Amino acid sequence: MEDGVKFCEDDFKHEFAEMSSETVMFPKYREKYIEQTQKYIEKALEAKKISCKIDMGERTIDVMTNRSTRDPFIFVKAVNFVKLVSRGVGIEEAMKVLEDEYFCEVVDIKKMASSEKVFEKRRDRLIGPKEMTLKAIQILTKCHVLVHGKTVSIIGSFKGIEEVKKIVVDCMNNIHPMYQIRSLIEKRKLEEDKSKEGEDWSRFLPKIKKSNKKSKKKVVGRPSGNMPLDVPKRKEDIEMETGEYFVDGDFDFEERESSRERKKKREEKKKRDVEKYVPPDE
């Protein structure tokens, strides 16, 4: 293990007081693969002194300890091994979980998205074109990562799993994986540089920003309160303020009177013209 402590079977000479068992179900699309690799699954668990029973009819795998089992934690690892195989991980990669140096975690990413469309878009972003983003993550973290369906399966060391999990969670929260990938590249370079030991690395790491952040437009509306908006002044109002309205008032009055008289004459003429075409009473 990472702390240097390894399991020694000689330290546990007696069998367990109670046997443990757990049933793991696998989907129909994995039925053919598990049927083909059944003997390899049983052999891998048998090497760790764990019993296994595969029921193809019920599509279940029973994992059990036996009288020869001595490692208290191997049962948990065996269950994780079977779960990974059921979720689409190849048996060669899943078998690593049975070793002391490897661990695993399954991250449910479906619950992190607000809609199906957003989920698919961000999952594709995590995988990247031609799986290039996923391959970069695996190389930098030295973990096996499988994005399958609504989950992400991670196999590796504790440190690597935490790094991958952070990338996955940030990606589903609309932070592009490239920010974390660049950060990991810089960290690997700084780890090799002995002169940077004990220093604060934050100034060397790229700043993480959210992508596609929509800026809210400021809505300019009517100010609060019951006072009306400023109304533009009329020509008459401006003339009244300057005094021009009162100086030319007589002229304006005469003009208005003459226009009324002309209008009245036009109406009378129109009325006379209409009367010409009215037929006389019989």
Detail the topology: elements first, then pairings:
Blueprint: E1 21-25, H1 31-36, H2 38-47, E2 50-55, E3 60-65, H3 74-86, H4 91-94, E4 103-108, H5 116-127, H6 132-141, E5 144-148, E6 151-156, H7 158-172, H8 177-192, H9 235-242, H10 244-247, H11 249-276
Helix pairs in contact: 5-7, 6-8
Verbal overview:
The chain is an alpha+beta fold. Among the domains are: 17-99, K Homology domain, type 1 (Ribosomal Protein S8, Chain: A, domain 1, 2-Layer Sandwich), CATH 3.30.1370.10; 101-195, 2-Layer Sandwich (Ribosomal Protein S8, Chain: A, domain 1), CATH 3.30.1370. It is built from 11 helices and 6 strands. It has helices at 31-36, 38-47, 74-86, 91-94, 116-127, 132-141, 158-172, 177-192, 235-242, 244-247, 249-276, and strands at residues 21-25, 50-55, 60-65, 103-108, 144-148, 151-156. The strands form 2 sheets. The protein has a 3-stranded antiparallel sheet with strand order 1-3-2. A hairpin with a 4-residue loop joins strand 2 and strand 3 (60-65). The radius of gyration is 41 Å and the shape is elongated. The N and C termini lie far apart (126 Å). The model has no long low-confidence stretch (mean pLDDT 82). Residues 212-242, 255-282 are annotated as: Disordered. Keywords: Nucleus, Ribonucleoprotein, Ribosome biogenesis, RNA-binding, rRNA processing.
